[in-house]
Each structure stands twice: as structure tokens, then as C-alpha cells.
User: Fold this.
Amino acid sequence: MFIEFEMERFQSLYENEVDYNLSDSGLHPLTIKDLLNEEEINHFLNMEIGYGYTQGDPVLLNHVAQWYPGQCENNVLITNGSAEANFILAWSLIQPGDEVIMMLPNYMQVPGLAKIFGASVKYIHLKEELGWHFDMDELQSLLTNKTKLISICNPSNPTGAVMSAEELKQLAALAREYDAYIHSDEVYRGSELNGNETYSCIEFYEKAIVTCGLSKSFAHPGLRMGWLVADESIIKDLWSRKDYSSICASVLSQYIAIKMMQPNTRKKIHARATSMLSTNVELFQNWLNTHPDLFSFVPPKAGGMAFVGYKMDINSTKFANLLRTEQSVLIVPGDCYGMDGYLRFGIGSPSDYLSTGLNLVSQGIKNIGY
Amino acid sequence: MFIEFEMERFQSLYENEVDYNLSDSGLHPLTIKDLLNEEEINHFLNMEIGYGYTQGDPVLLNHVAQWYPGQCENNVLITNGSAEANFILAWSLIQPGDEVIMMLPNYMQVPGLAKIFGASVKYIHLKEELGWHFDMDELQSLLTNKTKLISICNPSNPTGAVMSAEELKQLAALAREYDAYIHSDEVYRGSELNGNETYSCIEFYEKAIVTCGLSKSFAHPGLRMGWLVADESIIKDLWSRKDYSSICASVLSQYIAIKMMQPNTRKKIHARATSMLSTNVELFQNWLNTHPDLFSFVPPKAGGMAFVGYKMDINSTKFANLLRTEQSVLIVPGDCYGMDGYLRFGIGSPSDYLSTGLNLVSQGIKNIGY
Assistant:
């Protein structure tokens, strides 16, 4: 059974066709010149472009590990983007007949893969009335001795909600009781609006497998740099899968990633993200205010996106397609999350670009009579 | 069922630990400064590192397509290395219960994946006495109405044999009779010692799926640039799998790949490969001559490797491990292909490096009493 990855299909087909792409959930990227100094650029241009270490450059493994309390380089595997990290995790872990519990709404890659690999999938719903958190009692009611994996995205795509240390502790305790793995997609960690870094699940649970990368909070998707963080024995299993999926990651991207993951640079890049998003969340809120009573909105705590409910009598995909064809603006319809009546706006672009895009959305709203 | 990818495991674990890595089958790489001119470097350093097109940059699709007679950009999908191209092909095509026919010896990724995805695998053997070609009648005897896929590697890894147009026509006719796909791994195309480019299988068969990339004949594995070439309807299916496996390839690597795939540059890179290999095959043959009667050798027609049989009373993995631990030289044991009694030497490195490595192998041979 194959299930199309709706959101990626939608983005793949249209993101380069529109004038205003508000479908992306990351931050606007920089250039190599912005990221490397002259000496580093010189080294970079003179590197032989041979095979890299298949687990990842040892220096990069070390820098990544340092961002996770208590982890070392044997706990890290470098991948082609966080997408490949999610893929390898799903492919390694999920067997036909497994039960897996997925947070919903979510980036729909792992739920899709879980079904493709033959698992039965249960959903734990984020609730708007809980500020897009989920209910631990509800999670407990879904757990059984067959539960292989609980998959979360924290900070959450698409809601931008952030789980507290207390919630993560409770989650770990529940998973431990049923001996389930936790997959924690943490690709939005580091872009918190209040500047307080989200706790990594790896701090709380020995069977946590973290996926992350440089595409979202780190703002550089074109590098295709991602990683997995887990117990050494788990990393070993994942690594032997990667031999089959892509062998290793670009040595050029790894060189840039080493710079980006140095603690000082990392902090600067995240401070830039926080500053851009703070401005843009305010801009977005002001835009929503120009359409009174049309939207419900819980402002995100992190991540480059805003998830809103709407009170317009139109299907979300239909509305997104109208915006695409008539206004040349791309946003993600709630249908991609099985949540019609909602829309996801990327808000990580430069403010003037975002502002012009949103004005075009207003025109689209007017055109359908609201 | 999971089967470790023995050769990649062996290389992953040891290739960075030895002084002389003769386990690689590609050509020695260049640097960005060698590949791009000043204007291109300036553009490259000032590119925003955002998401690329998920199918691949249209300019790159076009350049790749031009290398295949009769193909256009809709026939191409860009991947993270040819490894990901092979992976996506296997994952998309192979269902539990399928019969697949694999050339042996071969790069063992697709055979491993075929088993992992539940196929029953039959082997068509390359025969040393046929100059490492296979027998078409033997292939015919393996085909049934259940045969989903025939997988070849042409030019062949590890033997460097090249199939003729006539052989490819016969192969296509057989596959057509049984309505089977042909997977043709053509990553060594372009490094022919006589300078005559190998025919692509896509010229002969409508259900051929070609995998290729810049890691071997193009000499730049660190870019992780690969592609699939097939009928447009097949590419569409493969593309929707790629949404799940890694979304897209590095925009930096794609920019360099565009330059490399321009016809003039492509020809220069391949001429360099031909020249390096011609020198090194002669060097290798001279080295073999210093061990009379110990080896059997059919010189390769293309590709950065030499595959030899040996008459020493030692298991190939044991011998490779002795060379690794005692001489700090890495070569690939025939065991990785299910062919004990053979060894694969990478011969694409600079001649002095190869020569020193081979002298260390002689020392290893002497140490075991030959």
C-alpha cells in the first residue's frame, strides 16, 4: 500500500510556480558568504569533493552531540536532511502489525511511512482549547503492549506549540511503562519566540530517537543536513540502514554545518530566527485583525508558521488552490493534516514579502465574499 | 528481514582508518576551484541556501536528459547520490512475492533491498571465461511471468565489463517478452578506457530505469548527486516516493552538477577519467606481473576498479582484514559479492598513492607465505 505524501506533493508541484510561497515552515536562508569567513571560504573552495564519513564527519558529530545534554558522537548519525532522518527511523523501526501512536496535526511524513510499512496507526490529537497540547490521559488510553512507537513533533508543526519539561517527563514515564520508543521530531527547536530553548526529549528518555536538521530553525534547507540522536545501540542499527538509503551526506554541506553548529554561530542563527519570527508573528496578528471574527489563532511559541482555523464556507484545499491560481500565493490547506477548516501560513520569510503575500490572501478572501 | 549491506558496512567502518584506501571504485575528485570559474564561484557563494526543486533544478534536469538519446527533463529525477536513486527504485518497484533477477557479482545494494522488500531473488552470473559477460540463454531460462525486474550494472561493478549494443538489444527483447522492468545502474558510464561511451539501456527499452550520478565516472562522490532516468509515468511514481525519503537534493551540489553536466565539461571530466584509468590499469597489470601465477585478471573496460581471482589458500575477508590491520590498506573481499577467491582493488586514485598501496599489498602477500 502506498499513500501519497499530500503536503509534500502539493509543495513539490507548486512551490516554484507562485510569486509568494507562504507554504514553507522554516526561516529565510543566508548564503555561504554570510555563513563562512574568508579563511573558511578558501578552505571550502579547495576541499577535494570525495566521499565523507558515512556516519558523518567526526567534528560535526561532536558539535551536534554537544547540543544535547549527556550525548556524545556515538549517539549521532548525519543524514540528508531531517526528512531522511525521519525516513530511516520509520524504515528501521516499524514492522507490519506494529501499533504506532502519532501526534495530529503533524508533519505527515512519519504517519504516512508508518502505514506504508504496515503499522496500525492511532492518533493523539493536539487540542486548540489546550493551546495545541494533547491530553496525557488520552495518550494513556491509546497505549497497549503492542505499541512500538509514539511519534511527536516538538515544537509542533504546524501549531508551534512547545511541550514543557514536565510534559516530556510524563510522556517518557508512559512510554517506559509500555516499553515503547519515542520519536521526537525537533527540527523547530531553537526558534522559540521567547528565546528559551525547547527541552530535547533525549534528556528524559533512554529510548527516545530525536530527528533534527538545519532546514527549519537553522534556516538552511538547501544544505540537506539532518541528524538522528539516540542511544548508541539504536544509532548502530539506523546506520546500517543508511548504507542502503544514501550512504553519506554531502561533504560540502557538512563543512558548512560544522560552522553552523559551533555554539557561538548556532546561538547567533537562532537569535536571528527568534527576532525574525517575533516581528512576523506581530505582523501576522495585525493582518488577522483586519479580518475580524474570520479566524481563530493560538500564536506559535516557536517555528516559522502560523496555524489558524477559519470561519469561511469553503474547503481548505479549494481555498488554497484559489489563492494559488488567482493570487499566486501558496499556503498549506488543513486537509493535508486531515483538518479541513484550518490553514497553515509560513511566516519565516522577510516581512515585506510576507506582508505582500498576506495582502494577496486578503484579496482572495474578498473574492469569495468575506 | 533485514540483511546488512556487507560491502558498505566494511567500507563505512574502515575506509577512514587506513593509510591507503583502495576500496573505492571511483576516480579521485577535484575541488570547487577546479570545477567552477571565478564568476561561477561568486554566484555560488552568494546563492541563498533555500529549498531546491524537489524533482531537481530544471536546468540540471535538462543537462542530464541531454546525455540520454531521446530523453527530456520529464524523464529525470535528481536524487541524493546514485545510492538514493537505487534505493527509490527498489522501494517503489519491489513488492513481497515479486521475482527479481540480479546480475552477480554486482554492487550489492539492490539485491539486498530486493530481499528486504520481500522479493525472491535469482542470480544471473557474469562469467570470467566470457570476459565477465553473462549468457543470454541462461537469462532466458530464469525468466518467468512473475519476473518483475532484471537488475544490471553496466559498465559492471566490480568487473569493469561493458555490454555491447547488441547485448542490450537482446536483453531488452527478453525483458519485453516477459513485460519485466530493467534496472540499469550506469554510474560507471563515461569512464571507458577506449573512450567509447557505453550505450545506455534507456535507448533500447521503454521499461528501462537508469540510475546514475556524479560519484564514479564523474569522480565527485562528496556532492551526493544522482539521478533516475525513465519513462515519464515511472518518474512520477518515483518522485512521490522521494517526498518521503529526502524531499530534495542539495542546492549547492545541484549548482556544481549543472556545470559538470554541460556537454563540454562532461567530456573533459570523462577524458580525465579515461586518461587516469589507462595509466593505472597498466600500473596494476605491471604489479600483478610481479606476482606470477598468483592472480587471474580480465582487465576492465571502464570504471575505477580491478577484479582479480587469486590462488592463495586464504579466505578473501580474512586476507582483506590482514591487509587492513597489518598494512593499513583497504580492499574489498570477494565475499562481499558471494565470491570468495576474488578481490576488488580500487584503481582510480593518483598513481603514486595506488603504487604505494599495492606495494603494501605485496608485503601482505609475502607475510602469508606467497
